[in-house]
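hey m, so remember when u said the tokens were messed up on ur end? i reran from scratch. heres the input so u can diff it against urs
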Amino acid sequence: MKQIEFGLFNMSTNRKFLISTVLLFVLWIIVALIAIFTGTYSIGPFEAFEAFSNSDELSKTIFFKIRIPRVLMATIAGGTLAITGAALQALFRNPLASPFTLGISGGASLGALLALKSGLAVGFLGFSMVSISAFIFSLLTMLFVYSVSKVRGGVVATGRLLLAGVVANFLYSAVIMFIQFFSTFTESLQTMRWVMGSLDIVGFDTVWKTLIFVIPGCLILLSLTKDMNLFGLGDDVALSLGVNVKRMEKKIYFATSLAAGAVISVTGPIGFVGLIIPHILRMVLGVDNRIILPCSFLLGATFLTAADTVSRTIISPVEIPVGIITASIGGIFFLWLLIKTKKEIIV
């Protein structure tokens, strides 16, 4: 059947993109609504409307200052971690690449923690120094991992790439534990909870400040999806088709560090979202990054929103850090992926 070109997509690709994004968006709406009305303090749609109309301060506070901001933060964090994971996997041509496995999450965590411990939790030109520090450390980690993993000819070796990420994570963990050792009991407990990953925020202020960094980063990545597809055919092919590979790499480094660093500075290192989501979508939708990246954002947002709802309701009123839930799911998935990859290499 002859395919009709439609902008950057052919007709069948455009249809797949439209159907996938609509279905994933509807799925996110459903999960988000369930999350908003689910919790220790039960609030249904009618109760929420009545509370707003009758000025019930308790219900209004829970609904508008805790539940809705938390769902929005889960959406932003999950979507950002997933889309950055998809971009890194396209850049390194490695399904095991993600902000967590490459040490970017650890770098951002250390940067944010150092800013907090140094009393730099203030604004600079309207931006949080915590987010700025997280971005700087995540960018430095990205450059370190990339430079260490390159072998002769500028080729990135998969084994060295993952090993460099593991080394970076160990180094950052050691520094974080060192900081904890000299902290008070209260500070140590707060740090430990933050390192486990949490979406425990109040109000919309944190949401808006995170979006200042996330939106530019995600837009840059979405603008590079066509170049990512060509890059997947090989460096020489991409160069012959007009792709500036070095510039594309730098843009991905900057965008992933900016977006992921901003999210991690608020939520802590929530692992495996950037690994699981893009890989699942590639198994279902194929390898076209013009479809994978936007769908990764939507499915990542849905996944983390659902995981956060489970974390705060499974043994209510006790709240489990959401990072524990994602790590439990991601650890099993990561093991399966390693076994699958090993089998493919042997074959």
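this time it looks ok to me. The CA atoms of residues 118 and 191 lie 14 Å apart. if urs says something different then somethings off w ur setup not the seq
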